[in-house]
Amino acid sequence: MTAANHEVTVRVFEVRAEAEIAVARLAADGIDAAIRQDDEGGLNPGFYKRYGVRVVVQSESLEDAYTSLGVERLGIRRPLLDAMFQHAAWGYPSESCGLVAFDAAGPALVICLTNAIDAPDRFVIDPVEHFGAQSLADRLGMTIGGIFHSHPGSDAFPSRHDIEGGGDPDWIHFIAGPMNNRPTVRAFRIEGSVPVEVSLDVQP
């Protein structure tokens, strides 16, 4: 192992059993992996449900691990993530929301919109603004391919409201959170009622 090699997360699960299956699959492909979860030293085994169960590998094995687990990867430029964070901070403590337009290369434009219900635990995009965002994307030769919103006080993982909220089944859902403590952006496809994470490859 070189000094530059370090532990990285390859996928996050909501249920430990699914993480254990992933570790077994990686092992079958000759990739060493481990499970990391915060359960307060074993005192609170349900605590990980808020933060997820992480499957980690050494950084030199990350590409092979993505392939082994069939994790979809999506390149995204850092300024787009910055725009999501800034809009989320502006709307705090309510959820903020918007749409993401794609061009042939992937995510290209973040369109910040209004949460019509101004709530801390759910969002509804203003329908007039939605139409305007769609028209803008059309004029730019882009396609709306994603939706983003913030979680002011909870982890960046789809809530029941997010999953039941509908939207185009082909869209990618970007979630920024928790805005009150070390926020991050994670991305998911909602397949039926199951969130499936998309790994974000952050580029300059």
- The helix-strand sequence is EHEHEHEHEEHEHEEE
CATH topology name of the largest domain = Cytidine Deaminase, domain 2
Mean pLDDT across residues: 88
Low-confidence stretches: 40-51
What summary fits the major beta sheet?
7 strands, mixed
- For the biggest β-sheet, the strand order reads 4-10-9-8-7-5-6
| CATH homology superfamily of the largest domain | Cytidine Deaminase, domain 2
Strand percentage lies at 25-35%
**Tally of structural domains:** 2
Radius of gyration: 18 Å
Number of strands: 10
CATH architecture of the largest domain: 3-Layer(aba) Sandwich
Query: What is the CA-CA span between the terminal residues?
Result: 28 Å
How does the helix and strand content classify structurally?
alpha+beta
Shape: globular
Q: Just give the CATH class of the largest domain.
A: Alpha Beta
Write a brief structural summary.
This protein has 204 residues and is α+β, with helices and mostly antiparallel strands. Helices cover 28% and strands 33% of the residues.
Task: Kindly list the characteristics that best describe this protein.
single chain; alpha+beta; Alpha-Beta Plaits; Cytidine Deaminase, domain 2; 2 domains; 7-stranded mixed sheet; 3-stranded antiparallel sheet; 6 helices; 10 strands; globular
Write the layout of secondary structure elements.
Elements: E1 7-13, H1 16-28, E2 34-36, H2 48-51, E3 53-58, H3 62-69, E4 73-77, H4 78-91, E5 97-103, E6 106-113, H5 127-139, E7 143-150, H6 160-164, E8 172-177, E9 184-191, E10 194-203
Parallel strand pairs: 4-10, 7-8
Antiparallel strand pairs: 1-3, 2-3, 5-6, 5-7, 8-9, 9-10
